[in-house]
Automatic annotation (TrEMBL):
Keywords: CBS domain, Chloride, Chloride channel, Ion channel, Ion transport, Membrane, Repeat, Transmembrane, Transmembrane helix, Transport, Voltage-gated channel. Pfam families: CBS, Voltage_CLC. It is a multi-pass membrane protein. Residues 1-29 are annotated as: Disordered. It comes from the Eukaryota. Belongs to the chloride channel (TC 2.A.49) family. The keyword Ion transport applies. The chain crosses the membrane at residues 89-110, 131-159, 281-300, 333-353, 373-394, 464-488, 509-535. One of its GO terms (cellular component) is chloride channel complex. This is Chloride channel protein. Residues 1-16 have a biased composition (Low complexity).
Length: 753
């Protein structure tokens, strides 16, 4: 097989072939299906290798070192190289600046909208107008949810959800269409404001990561597609590799904007988002996150003067517990280990249940836009009922006169909400439910408040948010899982702190932080970046720990040569190829790369006469450009270096534009030739056919490849220099084998027979 396919291959029956008649694979025409259903292969795991499992295309992160690329870099002056480097850092600065400003806008809007809503309801509750308060809160949340869901359903469906899985896919080489457009960015911003202000059990942290990535993508390509800036230097960033670097900066900036954690943002991209990394990109990414941190700090200093409306301490998550003096004892090892164990169990259970819920939601959402809206509004109504009614179940607690903080409070913020209690008493459950999620986290993380929360209130809070987290994630609004998981984890962490009582010297607020970290690690499998995020979040070095995240051992009984044998023969092109052959290949296959082979070359010492040379690999997009520009030759010959530079530039070849359907070739042109040597990547990544698939996967992921050529172990006369091509689709099939080991065992049984 030539390479990964871009669209679903059309299957057709082969006439004139009897059931018992065997076909010669070498004579298999290109217009025949690439993978046939075979009963003899039904139990063989290699039968699924090469199957088209997705129509989504991969990205070309590898540098295509053809003649045009080499000439382009040789011809650049020192001033041009410095300009290119300066532009990289300038774009990194703009990504951080704009992400910080938009995060500021979102926080300012959420705090004021939710703040005025809560103040109005608090006034009604204080006057004992409970029904009116319930109607007011439910209606306000309903309208805000409708606003967010309507934007997502009608204008940008890709803005729903956190967007982080799609960013991970893109940064690891899978193209995710319509994920970083201007409409997605706008809907993500205003949808997040509406959804978070509506009091839903979701956070703005995931959407901020997506927002940062959208900003980076739009800056790199000069703006939206219809209004793109045609500045000459921006064209250098209109390729997959540079765009990937910018989106990495954007994703890191989004994490920093969510948690004010510049180092944690960088490590999040390193650990969670990308499987590759470069030191130069590390510094640019940290520069972007540092700019975000400066913007947020300046914004907070400005708002401390009271010029930002109701925006207060709750707008940006920062739970400073650095003033707590902690001395660890041997007795503390057991509860801390227990917190980690509970986090792993509850996190895996949460993921399992969430998967079941999302399958149901998928069936509902497939019925149309109205059903998506109704689902979102139903969750909003249920959430509003719970947030308003459950605090009435809690008993009122007297205020402790030794506490310096105001008690009770009726404002938007405060750790001791009066709600329905008489003067001098507070409702601990209302302090967690009748507030914004940011303030709820701050309240439950509070230190030196050992008697503030009752165990029953914490248990109700945990159970409610566990249920709300399951039913809220997946509705058609921008949503993130970070904050809901933090709230769930902090509840059982504080419960364990209460249970320990006098047996521990650790503050209950610190137990809450440990619980939040453990549940996030259990559900999201984050270790190093999570540790640093909580370190920056709490400003306390006591939470730094070291965890070894060892990946599971992959199966090593399959080789890349076996994968190649399970696939149809590789489609190759000659160095100087006929136009008709190129058109036939492009029309009847959907591969994105083709090995270029030269036959009858002058051999080096030790090789047989008439040796075959693997010149490299040529991309489908480049072949399409050749046909569109009609760079044809009247005779079979190799071109001079200046000839290709008259027709093409490296910048043109880096752009992902042009389709084969737009090409028109006459019958006379079909008989002409094309010299593919100048357009061929002469340094593709190759592996020998005896290499294990597990080892090839490591190389494929770490380098961010799209194609990997498989070469034979023995170079005998008449043997093709390329056995096959390993693509992302093949590795997906391999992942299926590792997920279902019984398929691999069936292969071993067949070998034994």
């Amino acid at each position: 097989m030539g390479a990964e396919t871009t669209t679903t291959t059309t299957t057709s029956s082969v006439e004139g072939v009897g059931e018992g008649e065997e076909r010669d694979l070498e004579s298999n025409p290109l217009n025949q299906p690439l993978l046939k259903r075979s009963r003899t292969l039904s139990s063989n795991p290699l039968a699924i290798v090469g199957a088209k499992v997705s129509h989504i295309e991969s990205l070309d992160y590898e540098i295509n070192e053809n003649d045009l690329f080499k000439h382009d870099w040789r011809s650049r002056s020192s001033a041009q190289v410095l300009q290119y480097i300066f532009l990289k850092w300038s774009l990194a600065f703009l990504v951080g600046l704009l992400t910080g400003l938009i995060a500021t806008l979102i926080n300012l809007a959420v705090e004021n909208i939710a703040g005025y809503k809560l103040l109005a309801v608090s006034g009604l509750v204080e006057k004992k107008r409970y029904l009116t308060g319930f109607i007011y809160l439910t209606t306000a949340n309903f309208v805000l949810t409708l606003f967010a869901a309507f934007l997502c359903v009608c204008f940008a469906p890709t803005a729903a959800g956190p967007g982080i899985p799609e960013i991970k896919a893109y940064l690891n080489g899978v193209d995710t269409p319509n994920m970083f457009g201007a409409s997605t960015l706008i809907v993500k911003i205003f949808g997040s404001i509406g959804a978070v202000s509506a009091g839903l059990d979701l956070g703005k942290e995931g959407p901020l990561v997506h927002i940062g990535s959208c900003i980076a993508s739009l800056l790199g390509q000069g703006g939206p597609e219809n209004y793109r800036i045609k500045w000459r230097w921006l064209r250098y960033f209109n390729n997959d590799r540079d765009r990937r670097d910018l989106i990495t900066c954007g994703a890191s900036s989004g994490v920093c904007a969510a948690f004010r954690a510049p180092v944690g943002g960088v490590l999040f991209s390193l650990e969670e988002v990308a499987t590759w990394w470069r030191s130069a990109l590390l510094w640019r990414t940290f520069f972007s996150t540092a700019v975000v941190a400066v913007v947020l700090r300046a914004f907070i200093e400005y708002c401390n003067s009271g010029k930002c409306g109701l925006f207060g301490r709750g707008g940006l998550i920062m739970f400073d517990v650095s003033d707590v003096t902690v001395t660890y004892h041997a007795m503390d090892i057991a509860p801390v280990a227990l917190i980690g164990l509970i986090g792993g169990v509850l996190g895996s259970l949460y993921n399992h249940l969430l998967h079941k819920v999302l399958r149901v939601y998928n069936l509902i959402n497939q019925k149309g836009k109205i059903h998506k809206l109704l689902l979102s509004l139903s969750v909003s109504l249920f959430t509003s009922i719970c947030l308003y009614c459950l605090p009435f179940l809690a008993t009122c607690s007297p205020c402790d006169s030794s506490i310096t903080e105001t008690c009770p409070t009726n404002g938007r913020t405060g750790n001791f909400k009066q709600f329905n209690c008489p003067d001098g008493y507070y409702n601990d459950l209302a302090s967690l439910l009748f507030t914004t999620n940011d303030d709820a986290v701050r309240n439950i993380f509070s230190t030196n408040t050992a008697t503030e929360f009752h165990p029953l209130s914490l248990l109700i809070f945990f159970g409610l948010y566990y249920i709300l987290g399951l039913i809220t994630f997946g509705i058609a609004v921008p949503s993130g899982l970070f904050l809901p998981i933090i709230l769930m984890g902090s509840a059982y962490g504080r419960l364990l702190g209460i249970a320990m009582g006098s047996y521990t010297k650790i503050d209950q607020g610190l137990y809450a932080v440990l619980g939040a970290a453990s549940l996030m690690a259990g559900s999201m499998r984050m270790t190093v970046s999570l540790c640093v995020i909580f370190l920056e979040l709490t400003n306390n070095l006591l939470f730094t720990t070291h965890n070894n995240d060892c990946p599971p051992n992959s199966q090593k009984n399959l080789t890349v040569g076996e994968l190649a044998d399970a696939k149809p023969p590789v489609v190759t092109l000659r160095g100087v190829e006929k136009v008709a052959r190129i058109v036939d290949v492009l029309r009847n296959t959907t591969h994105n790369g083709f090995p270029v082979v030269d036959e009858g070359v002058v051999p080096r010492v030790g090789l047989a006469i008439g040796a075959t040379e693997l010149h490299g690999i040529v991309l489908r997009a480049h072949l399409v450009k050749v046909l569109k520009k009609k760079w044809f030759l009247q005779e079979r010959r190799r071109t001079e270096e200046w000839e290709v530079r008259e027709k093409f530039t490296w910048i043109e070849l880096a752009e992902r534009e042009g389709k084969f359907e737009e090409v028109a070739v006459t019958n006379d042109e079909m008989e002409m030739y094309v010299d593919l040597h100048p357009l061929t990547n002469t340094t593709p990544y190759t592996v020998v056919e005896s290499m294990s698939v597990a080892k090839a996967m490591v190389l494929f992921r770490q380098v961010g490849l799209r194609h990997m050529l498989i070469v034979p172990k023995y170079q005998a006369a008449g043997v093709s220099p390329v056995v096959g091509i390993l693509t992302r689709q093949d590795l997906r099939a391999y992942n299926i084998l590792t997920a279902f080991p019984h398929l691999a065992k069936s292969k071993e049984r067949e070998k034994g027979n």
